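A reminder before we start the practical. When you read a complex entry, don't treat the lines as separate problems. The point of joint prediction is that each chain is placed relative to the others, so the output describes one connected object in space. Small molecules and nucleic acid strands, if listed, are placed in the same frame. In the example below there are two entries. Take a minute to note the order of the lines before looking further.
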Amino acid sequence: MQQNRHIFLRNSALAMVGVGTAPLWLERALYAADAPSPRKKILVAIFQRGAADGLNIVVPHGEKAYYAMRPTIAVPRPTAGSADAAIDLDGFFGLHPSLAPLKPIYEQQHLAIVDAAGSPDPTRSHFDAQDYMESGTPGRKATNDGWMNRALPKDQGKVSPVRAVALGPVLPRAMRGSRPAIALQSIGGFQVRNAVAAKQFEQMYAETKDPVLAATGRETFEAVSMLQSIQRQPYVPANGTKYPRGRFGDSLQQIAQLIKSDVGVEMAFADVGGWDHHVNEMGPRASEGQLATLLRDYGQALSAFWTDMGDRMQDVVVATMSEFGRTAHENGNRGTDHGHANCMFVMGGAVKGGKVYGKWPGLEKEQLYEERDLALTTDFRDVLGELVSHHMGNPTLNGVFPGYNPKFLGLV
Amino acid sequence: MRKQAWLALASVFGLAAFPGIYAYADKKSAAQTRQFFRQIPNDQKIDQALNRLTFGPRPGDAAQVRALGFKKWIDLELHPERIPQNPMLAEKLKTLDTLTMSSEQLVRNYPTPQMVKQMASGQMPFPSDPERRMMIQKMVAKAERKQGDTDPAANAPDMKKLNEIFTPQQLRTLRTGTPQQRLAVFQSLTKDQQEDAIEAMPPPLRQNLMQVAPAEMRRRLELTAGPQQVVARDLMEAKLLRAIYSSRQLEEVLDDFWFNHFNIFLDKGADRYLVTEYEHAVIRPRVLGKFRDLLEATAKSPAMLFYLDNWQSVGVEAPPVRGGGNRPRRGLNENYGRELLELHTLGVDGGYTQKDVTEVARCFTGWTIDQPQRGGTFLFNPRLHDKGEKTVLGVKIPAGGGIEDGEKVLAIVARHPATAHFISKKLAMRFVADEPPPSLVDRMAQTYLKSDGDVRAVLKTIFDSKEFWSVGAYRSKMKSPLEMVASAVRAVNGDVDYAFALVNQVAQLGQPLYRKQEPTGYSNSGQEWLNSAGLLARMNFALQLADNRVPGVKVDSAKPAKPGDPAGMGLGSPEFQKH
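Here is the predicted structure of the whole assembly.
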């Protein structure tokens, strides 16, 4: 009964918001009524745009061929006390030295790695491969929504206008679709800076005959009123955490703030670019150069998020992906060209970590994909599908990844 | 009259708004196709022409087009050399002196801190211009003084210094005064003091002064703050100024289109100095010419050779670098080869294979840059070229070739039917609709093939088409951030003295200029820009602009529709976001 009344209130209030007449107090009351309701499960997706070099991120140091194919840019085998060697994980794989901040999380068994994972589509186009990974339908260009949008659990009564949030100035492909999803550059800046104008704009967008602009306008203004309450207090990360400066650290800090403010976030997305290292991927040492710099920031940001979130990580899983891997051989310029399979990280309180998942295909010539790239043994949808199903509790996977039956690895 | 168009749009988008419902796809596309064969009434045609061929109509533009007749006006836009340039534009571009410099001049006159060091140690010549030389020498002296400092925190204000230069009263004014009051304090200093003050002050204050300073002083502020940044600032500001003031609007629209098609990321190393000449000498003169010429000019431009790494790609049999010592042998880099096929010509579905990518890359080995860090020029180095036989898209390129191997590739791909289709579709997306009718794209591709890739002819096919003047096309596209910002300033006849704040607005709306890292460039689909962050940024920009709160821009004609309403509601309205 109580539940029904809420649904009714929410729906009628939204209808009124739709025509610009809902009193603000009503809206607030609605979202406040059961804001601290049972905590929702949250999935944070991280996209490394540009095709990160998985073989130098999770280093197969037990593989001779790796060193043979990368005479000048291989990460050296683990050596006690060396900051320029791989950090051993299990005697065969090791982390890039710049990812040292992630090692403790791996040891505490909250970080899992899935290797030789990615999209089965053979494309080596950044654009197409990102598109396929975000739509969740490799090889199918006609899909016009994203897997994260489809993966949002079925609405149960009222839903938060910020249940799906992407950090950045544009809404990523993964989040586009029929359910409300917002792009947000900064929590503080997410408002119209003139109250009178805000009301009028809200009405204008509600009345426009362009249905897409009207819908986006409605989502926007609902989210604005939702975030008003948390805009005024400065955010202090917990446990003395310091996020690294820069866009990625910033994105993760704001995701942490949103989650901890209990405004109803269920899906969050952040991306980080600059992984397309065709030239001079590594500096004179493994801990130097372009990839090392990027990974340092990346590892620090993920580890800061972990520390800042504290106990709340029980509800959260972070999953990382990149459109494809890079050639197993280094190219002629101490870089790598576009390849195939990559690695994925899965981090969370409920994650069965401390293990490298996936079948290792090997790096001998006949084991390589098209004789040049790491072969794929785990479809990225196996990883994401398990998280959507077992973590988010959305059992309708054929709607999320149509035409594909994810095989779970037992990550959560 | 407009109502009809909105209804039509509603039916098109009504279905698009429920993605994932594939069953409706056929019905949807049939309905969409019909919209492209329903003509818009005559009075909307002027609006359509101005919306698509310019960065938005200014007050009075419609009357001018009407007087001339829109067919004649379009013909004129297709021949920009016949349109006298707006003298106001030249005036506004005057202080941005990097725009017409060669890359080599840019490196010398606007060096990075490392280059300043090299100049000091005699490894690099000082600038020829005496004033610049003096400035650099001062920088060298300063760098030497600073060497003892333990913490050279780049952007931290130097309070000790500021306290020496200013009285407490003056410092208070700098902190809390109006921009004009701050400027007065600053102008009361001697030139030397001013330079010390610029160095010592926090960057936001510096930026604040720039917004009100007269052009000449602004230049000095910029130079002292960091000469290498001036090159980027000039490029970005010029893009806005040209979009707003050029009387050759279609040329500007195409300059933006082609730069984006052959995108280069300004912040990739040497490209910081190469992009200016790239836009000025490679793109702009060829926006309405033969595609093949544009393609070849980009292929041979140091900017592209650097951005897509081809300058370092070397044939596997090439001898090791002389004096390279233990440096590893270089080899093939397929970055350019792939993007040439995927993004510049055939398109990702253009029917090429991984083998073709590698073969194309082999053909371009030896296409390199002479002294890339010094501004560089194109160089073909036969010693680095792979002289073996290659097969590209089924065409044999015999062994023993040189620079002609790459040129043959360009010829093959430039006249390939897949390229004709790919380029036509992209142009149609920019000028007609996010999902242009295939019938039009096919006709454009035919024109392309018949005219040997003549861009002007292909555009004429668009502007002569029924589809361009249709309900399906009219006001169907969401403006890109650049289009939104430029069209807003044009709509209110804004007077731009300093475009940097507008540049920042475009970035805030999601399209940092010259800073698209991926070679794809920005999407030509309006859909890309439709989201909550973008919408809010647009509304806030509209309010700021109309309220005269965008620094460097004066506006006086933005009267609110109803007295008492906030100004700028029109510019932030849903209707204004489309064109």
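Discuss with your neighbour: Residues 1-36 of chain A have pLDDT under 50 and may be disordered. What might explain this?
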